[in-house]
Amino acid sequence: MDLLARQRAVVRVLVVAAGLALGAAPSAVAAGGGGGFSAAPAKGAPQDKDGTYFALHASRGQTLHETLVVSNLSKNEKHFLVDPVDGLTGATSGTVYADRDDQNHKAGTWVTTTVGSLTVPPHSVVRVPFTVHVPGVARPGDHLAGLAIQDAHRAHSKSRFSVTQIIRVVVGVQITVKGAAHQGLALGKVAMAPLPGTKVPSVTIELASTGERLCKPLLHISVGNAKTGVRVVTHRLDTVLPGTKITFPMPWPTALAAGTYDVKARATHCGPVTSVAATATLGQTLRGTPTTPDPPAPVVIVRAGAATPWWAFVASAGFAALLGGIFAAVLLRRRKKPADAL
User: In the predicted model, is pLDDT for residue 336 greater than 80?
Assistant: First the structure.
């Protein structure tokens, strides 16, 4: 194996279009990399108003039978892998789905498909039946799984860096188990730090779902001290699933100097109002903003009438002497040339 082959990096790229819980996305379509296929709940199946995910209601111990529709929009035959996966809360809120190589521990274990792979002819549709079995000990409230349809063909680039592209769509399967359930959110540790790789200050706050229903909290965060005054920022989070905990980084809209600040956070629209107050220290001055992540280069301004330092005179005199020497050398050289060289 040559050196280039040994140095070749293998990058795994996963392009996902997902029907998200409580989302407003169109039907799950693989648009990246020329995927050319889509997946959606079958007509008549319980689903959200946009037809992007299954919205099922069941009792403990009940088994439901539903159907997913997979469409091949291309002119070539396609082969797909079919997998139930867990629905998860993303690092900054919102719904994400586990990879097919991850072991399911949540509602993904409730879903069983009739096939693990399928072949769909060009411009054709295939129906994929599946079952959802709700355990007898399942807690009342919202649970989320997904049905992942992945193109079995992996595209490989021929450039210096080997890139493997995997394209899949995931259709959400939201299961609401009947029984008393409520929304709830707890706020935990508060800190201040730059957003990774930037000079943008942020307030990080631990969020933990304490209820059985998913929600989209509204965060109200105030930051200030005696020197800067107090500023309040309100931010709507995306979906937070029951039983999950994340540390949410809230980008601050203005630059902040190093120092100690009083931070207060309040969460609404996710059950009872909850709040937390803390003192947080920012160890460095951060001049970036969400619109300008890194501060601009400093501009040196020389004011008219300002006293000129001694070193500026010395530098100017030296530079003038250097130019004078070069000019004299050029004149001397021109005088020594013969007439026919002109």
Answer: no
Judge residue 133's burial from the number of C-beta atoms within 10 Å of its C-beta, 0-12 exposed, 13-18 middle, 19 or more buried: middle
CA 130/CA 200 separation, integer angstroms? 46
State the CB neighbour count (10 A cutoff) for residue 145. Answer: 28
For 218-245, the pLDDT digits (tens) are 999 999 999 999 999 999 999 999 999 9
Q: Is domain 8-177 annotated with CATH 2.60.40.10?
A: yes
Q: Which two tokens stand for residue 296?
A: 């601009």
Instruction: State the Cα angle at 206 between 223 and 18, rounded to 5°.
Output: 115
pLDDT tens profile 156-177: 666 666 677 788 899 999 999 9
> Which has the closest alpha carbon to 191: 280, 256, 260?
280
* Residue length of the chain: 342
Compute the distance between CA of residue 171 and CA of residue 164 in angstroms, rounded to an integer. Answer: 23
Q: Where in the chain is the domain with CATH 2.60.40.10?
A: 8-177, 185-282
d(CA 201, CA 196): 10
The string of pLDDT tens digits covering residues 19-67 is 444 443 334 655 434 479 999 999 999 999 999 999 999 999 999 999 9
- Which tokens in the block code for residue 35? 């995927």
CATH architecture of 185-282: Sandwich (2.60)
Joined tokens for residue 133:
């079995």
Please report which residue ranges of the chain form alpha helices under DSSP H.
3-7, 310-336
CA distance 12 to 19: 22
Q: How far apart, in whole angstroms, are the C-alpha atoms of residue 115 and residue 292?
A: 49
* Dist CA 265 CA 217 (whole Å): 12
